[in-house]
Amino acid sequence: MRLAANQLPSTVSLSTREGVELIEIENRFAKATITTFGACVLSYIPQDQQDLLWVSDQAIYDGTKPVRGGIPVCWPWFGKATTEGYPAHGFVRSQVWQLESAEQLESGTTQICLKIEQAELSKNYFKPDFDLRLIVEVGQTLRLTLSTDLQGLDVTDITEALHTYFNVANPQTLTISGLDGSTHLDKLNEARLPEQQHGAVELKPARDSVYQNQPNDMIIHDTDNQRNIHIKTSNANSAVIWNPGPEIVKGFADISNQGWKEFACVESGNVLADAVKVTPQQNHSFSVEYWIENCSN
Ligand code: TA6
């Protein structure tokens, strides 16, 4: 089912940008933009604040590839596919999702649910029939829940992440806390053995690091913006921290050579050895919640 414009609360409207559909939300707490192409949240601007999220000024909106930035959904695998020719980070970030529901809650928060289900195209990549939902709650905080339901008989391993691009003042001065005790895997130096994380993480940049056994909340200390970005997770055991830095960025056609200076990816989910075994008819969900704390006083 897909909601028509006249079934939407007054805080929700639809528009298009080039080849993709946009859902615009505006309530007393914040404005947000989400595209149904990949169910990607592109913008979340709380009252009197700058955007929490970063989108590349070279992002492509024609529906041929994921929009570079915002919060892409990586599912049912994270990272490079193990099968030759399959797309990195799964297939649902490059497909159109349906707007299943949109509600204005009494609290003032606006909640929408986007859904994608098994189709001929995705059967090539992933066998079980599935219903995947992304519930987005736009209020004083931004909360996302990725909810997986599988049909059939087989217990199936999935990996998953919300690959959030945060808009930051300076990746060279920020730090990320909350990862103490997790297992750090440095993807820029595959020869390095996994090691226990101690203390705050710097982006350097470049960084491409996976932290496993990491169920804790995190804080991005966006020092030059005088703000902290809080990240609270539920049922997510992995974090991924990425910034391409000045050299690797040159390999990305949809990020300018200076673009790495504007964002930090701090991703939450269940990746690599934190893979989840999903049992048919038993829902599996994980959530992230983000909010900004001003530190200017
Ligand atoms: O999450 C980090 C990462 O997997 C990096 O290795 C990096 O290449 C990035 O995501 C972007 O991937 P994409 O497939 O969106 O170009």
Mean pLDDT: 96
Q: Order the strands across the largest sheet as they lie in space.
A: 6-7-8-9-23-19-18-13-16
* End-to-end separation: 48 Å
Strand proportion? 35-45%
Radius of gyration: 18 Å
Structural overview:
With 297 residues, the protein is an all-beta fold. It is 3% helix and 43% strand. The chain has helices spanning 120-123, 245-248, and strands at 12-17, 20-26, 30-35, 40-46, 73-74, 98-104, 110-117, 130-138, 142-150, 156-158, 160-162, 165-167, 175-177, 183-186, 195-196, 201-202, 207-212, 218-222, 227-234, 238-243, 263-270, 276-278, 284-294. Strands 6-7-8-9-23-19-18-13-16 form a 9-stranded antiparallel beta sheet, with no helix packed on it. Strands 5, 11, 12, 14, 15, 17, 20 and 21 form an 8-stranded antiparallel beta sheet that branches. Strands 1-2-3-4 form a 4-stranded antiparallel beta sheet, with no helix packed on it. The radius of gyration is 18 Å and the shape is globular. The N and C termini lie far apart (48 Å). The model has no long low-confidence stretch (mean pLDDT 96).
